[in-house]
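Researcher: I'd like a structural prediction for the single chain below. Treat it as a standalone chain; there are no partners to consider.
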Amino acid sequence: MDRVLDAAMEIPGFDAAMMVVERQDGAPAVVTRGMTAQETARPPTSGVAGALAGTITVSYRYGRDRETTEGELIRGGAFIPLMGRELRPVGTLSLFWRSAEHEPGAEDVEQAESLAESSIAAIENARRYGEARKLAETDALTGLFNQRFFHETLRREVMRAHRYQRKLTLMVFDLDDFKSINDQIGHLAGDRVLAQAADRLREAVRSVDVACRIGGDEFAVIMPESSAEDGEQLYKRVHNSMRGTVLGTDEERLRISGGIAELQHGDTAASLFERADGALYRAKELGKDRADTARLTE
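Model: Treating it as a single chain, here is the predicted structure.
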């Protein structure tokens, strides 16, 4: 997208540009050139860049008050749809000009259309790569990151924390007596409990936390820039959230045990995980339905 916009800004007559590419899930990817923060937040493309049948150009008119109080306003725009396979829209390339006396000619617009068309194959390849990578990193049952992604991310975050002398905390937890739960309500219902537990976990973590399913009923949360006390607070939030999950018909509530470890000097990803896992086992030995924090001497 950056390369497309860099090339678009070299076409005579265009002073600003915006490229929007739809994601498979979540907010679209947006890249701009030559636009103010206000223009980016409220782009002139609103109401125009939907399902376009072809390129359209638009001229803008402003009141006299805006003409005299604001700088170089956008005077017009060309909106070019990005059509993928089977004519499915994948995004929009929007190019704008600010001159009241001059606007791009037909040849300039055709050059922009050719640029947009040449970018579509790369966009679709990138989307397919993203989809494949997501499948490789995601646990199919819960939608959380999987064990492979957890270990790769933990290694990376441990290295980063050591390099920049940042805090890092790991919390691991599992569902108490999950084998008995499976025996009681069946494996399919047990899978639904795991999926519900993942939903509760997503509700409790921060946007910077990395929530993963690392085993059958075992979960982990990597907490960048966080202390052991932050991990204890997270456990309380997750614990309270999990209590809202009902098991079977006897109103029994889901309980969890957790282990928390803060990164120490000399820790590796493996040793940090071992200390958190050891704290989890101590919580089990102390009666379950609680968390234990790894001691600094471990």
